[in-house]
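Lecture notes, structural biology module. Today: joint structure prediction for complexes of three components.
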Amino acid sequence: MNTGKTEEIKTSGNVLLKSMVFSLGLALLFTLVANLLPQVEGEAPVEQEIDLGTLTMESFVALGEAIFTGNGTCSLCHNDLGRAPDILALNMVDIANEHLEDERYKGNATDAESYLYESMIDPGIYVVKDFGKKGSNDTISPMPRIDKPPIELSVIEINAVIAYMQAKDGHDVTVPLPVDAPVEEVQSVEAEKSSMNTISVNTIEEVVAKYACQACHTMLGGGGDLGPELEQVGKRLNAEEIRQSIIDPDAEITEGFSPGVMPRDFAEKMMVKELEILVTFLADSKVIHHEKPVASSLINTKKASSEVEKVIAQFGCQACHKMLGSGGVLGPSLERVGAYLDADEIRQSIIEPNRVITNGFPSGVMPPNFSEQMSDAQLDLLVTFLMTQKGD
Amino acid sequence: MKARRYSSWLMWLVLLVIAVLSFFWSGTLTTANTFNSGFFGAVAASTEIPADMSTAENTELTLTPAPKPTRADYPDVGVSSRSIVWVVAQLHLFFGALVLAVPLFVLVIELLGVYTKDSRYDDMAHEFMKISITAYSITALFGGTLALALFLLYPDLMAYLMRVFGAQMMVYAILFFLESIVLYIYYYGWNAMRYGNAKWVHLSLGLLLNAVGATLMVTANSWATFMMAPSGVNEVGAVIGDIWEVMKGPLWNPINLHRFIANIAFGGAVVGAYAAYKCLAARTAEARAHYDWMGYTSNFIAILAFLPLPFAGYWLMAEIYAYSQQMGITAMGGILAWLFIIQAVLIGTILLAGNYYLWSGMSRTEGSKRYQRFIKYIAVVLVICFLIWVTPHTLILTSGEIAALGGSNHPLLGALGIMPAKNIAVNLMLIFTFMSFQIYRRSDKVATVSWETAGNALMVAIYIVAIVNIIFVGVYYGYFTNTVYKVGSSVIQVVSTLTVIISGVVLDAFLYRKAKTLPSHWGQVSNRAQYALFALPIAFTWLMALMGYVRSSVRTHWHVYTVMKDTSPDNFIPTIGYAGNMMTIVTVLFVLFVLFIFWIANLSGTKQVPPYATHKAPAAERVESTA
Amino acid sequence: MIKNLQIWLTAFAVVSLYFYGLDHFIMSMQGLPLNMDLTPAQ
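The predicted structure, tokenised, for the full assembly:
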């Protein structure tokens, strides 16, 4: 390479100034481009309290539509760009029924509503043709679970979306209208308690929670000892015997235990699917698990219509006490408890159950830790309610 | 003498092994199996607890989930916390990139100096390092400020990250001691270890410096990628894996590669601005020639590193899509999609500036006249491809406009808005940039080999068939087949482009063996061309800020995606205009700091003449040195 | 002149063959086989 001579040459004017002006100008050009483009501000989901007492089916469907385009982020993929089925353009109920008929369908749903619910919480169970992950031959779904982070819709929100999908094409909405505030707020994801409204249960934990088996039986690592332990019941009984013990408890009583204790109406209350899950699980239960007991959830979501019934369902009172027209007989019936106990006595019986035992009932049976599990608000609610139970 | 030479080679070998091991350790291998075997595997296996998501709680009582701060838990200093961290973090990243990049190409240039025995390479390498040393302390300053800002403004997040990463953060801090020690010896010992065996020791130190620097980068990268795609923790953020599982998330290596390459391009661009400035301000023809050459070298480094960068970026994006399609679509098909149109503008600027510099540079040699006619065609292709790249797909329109347009996409141009068109455009832009490069390199040579015609025929055929292939594959698979073939076809395009580049380099190396060189003159270039070297770092800097913004905001309202929510007052994605303004602010600040660094570098080479000099030179005349 | 033409034709033929093979190779490596006329085989 040749180099020039070492003589002086004329330099261009103030180089610093020129280069700075040029650089700044270029940076401002980019800024201009950014400011000329459409300005859209993203919104983080905000917790919103919805007065479910005033909710109508119309507003519920509208809520579903808002969730679809808003914090549910459904429209990010479910649009006409071909990434996911274009929900807004399709008749989702008809499509759901079609998919249920598909021979590839291996899920547990039985109708359009449960199909739509299942596709949200377990998208991989059936992948619509041509929408699977690249190279997976439509066996792996790219869709995330909607009930998990980052989307994490609550059950009510999912129901609202289903309602919207049904209503938008003129079909009947089959999801129940939530008529009162649940434990968790709409659009919030503070699911600290593991209790959740479940429309249909799919896992053993959910079944056990729903029917509060652990109130009397040891299973899944915890529970009471009012009934025989079930950790290793699979060693003692076969599936048929287990099934009978659930739907006709008094037909055969295990040695050392009394008849007439276990609720007799599981046959009516349990869905076939739930019974099957339970029986299959128990028939396989031959070793002891080490998991904490699952907190019980609503016993009957369709019947639960008030705050106090939620509390009763959550803490499984009806497993042992008769109240609201049904329940077990392990503890005193509470149908008329307000007539013979005052508020303080009722409160004490809940938080310190072994202080005063009702005649004819053993001590050390009722869980002594309700004071820790229940919030003050819930306790107040329960006591107030029980005070009104005077049998008239 | 012989014994000493042997020992320095041995030291070189030992340091090489250390460097390789540190790269290995810093996780350039992507398979988990490598780390799950042997010593690391034993450690990993002993601490691993299987995460069973279906149970309500694990019995391991020491599992602590990620915190859930409420809005009130975030400290309020009166100014948007996010904007403070944004500015400080981005400046830290700019300078970090610079101080990692410069030693990389300094090492290569220094090696070149040893092989060619041309002292100008060594002097240039030394001059580059002078810039890097000042930048190093500024990097550390911003790093410390960033740490303070993060702990002050996001205490819950930082407490959680500390818990997750634990001792790894101490390793990061300790590595800085090693980096500083090696850097100071490397820079200040430059002239003391100038020749012979000592030079090899010096080179080894340079290699070690780069290895430590790369390790620092990949360590810090793991924090950022953990926040985007957490690994080694369960659903609620409790740590269930060992530190390797936490670090080696799905996005870690893509970011490592992308940042490694991008650093080089960025560093080259910044020192190119230094050279351009000095070239324009040069008072002697010799100085002008020297800095012209330096500018050319810098541009060479910047563009060379820039060419594979889109592919590294594509890999990163593909991994994001694979990890969470929702995150991927938010980035490119959702609210952040317009940012990629701005990216197109910036990359178009970079390529046009780089190409323009090469074309202008052809005036340095007379032999370039035979290639001048190609320039206008290259320019046309670049502009057309740029326009295609910049065309958006979905337009945000009012309902009236939608009715008038017949949809949310333009009937004709809408087709240009999606990836197949973009891929064609990008690949062609890279090929034609390489073409500018190739004709520039050929300008001062005349081939003397006997097979020149065949060689040139081959080269032309490769260009033409590659271009046809890229267009055909992009159009056919992109628009007329299904999604999987469309996505798969982009690999063909990448390999076609790489074929052109690699075959071009190799073919020219053989074609121009013992070639006749034509006279060329460093310094014989228009002043306008130097401004292209200012445009490069401005565009690179702004682009880095833009992409950094995309990377951070793709997490939307999560500090750690799916694991720790962001409930701070700033947990929303700002408008693109706001973001653009922030980017300009950080770019301007960066330029000001860089000016300071250049000034310091200049100042350190300035000697004031003593006032009692006996010759008739005016007092206090500054004498400039070039090293 | 003829020799030149031969050289250029050969060059184009060789390069076209290379890219044709490249297309097949890369697509099949990703599990996306092609027919002889480069149409998707799936």
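Point to remember: Helices of chain C lie at 2-29.
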